């Protein structure tokens, strides 16, 4: 790290010494004993501009206070059937760890439907995953390996990606904006697998719009990406949707829900849900746990994020129009015959 970066870290440390107690408290919940590493994430997200990084961090801390993010791991989504419905339609889970000890987060982009609960429940669930990762999973990995581990790997499964995904762009933009503004630089690498033609066509248009820092993190793998991913993680940590290629793979992969890292029956989700219920009881041991979603203030997407969302929507629309025209021509041929 160069001297200019060291100076930037020093400056932002000094600025953070001036924040009031509520901001300082929620900042501790963020950094979990690693303030410098957290400050570096915000500096990277703003290209090492100290004033912009400081503003981004203060805005994040104020968002955490206003939205009571420090308490979100005390707010289980109940009843359990509702949470199971969320898990079945918001495909997200931890499948294991890389060879370097980084958590492997699997995301079912193509098959997530987000149609079993309100938007607030999906946002609540996503933020709970983020907070559990940052407050429990990453500190445990750091302790286990004896060195700081503050990032994860994400594997995005595009299986089943369809034009109907247009209906989900608004919600996905909300979630993406929350991550970009409040959990920056938490992902080391994005691996995209099982990409259909519609993704490949869209990616060609979207890729140039991304910042170089983001583009470098994204790797589009062939097929389910099994062989490439085995270079960075063991077979046991592969998400279930990456275990299709190669002889003998079916012998290692069962069909039970416990093997599906998206399912509530998976060990990770059982641990997460039990943790949240325990935290709720510790906070209010006498009062019954209340139902209802945890409302979070949705931040406005920055212009770049909004532009990318519009581009994706436009490309999907073009694809839909082309498909519609092809179907019409095919119908004419069939009827003409």
UniProtKB/TrEMBL annotation:
Residues 79-239 form the CRAL-TRIO domain. It comes from the Eukaryota. It holds the Pfam family CRAL_TRIO. This is CRAL-TRIO domain-containing protein.
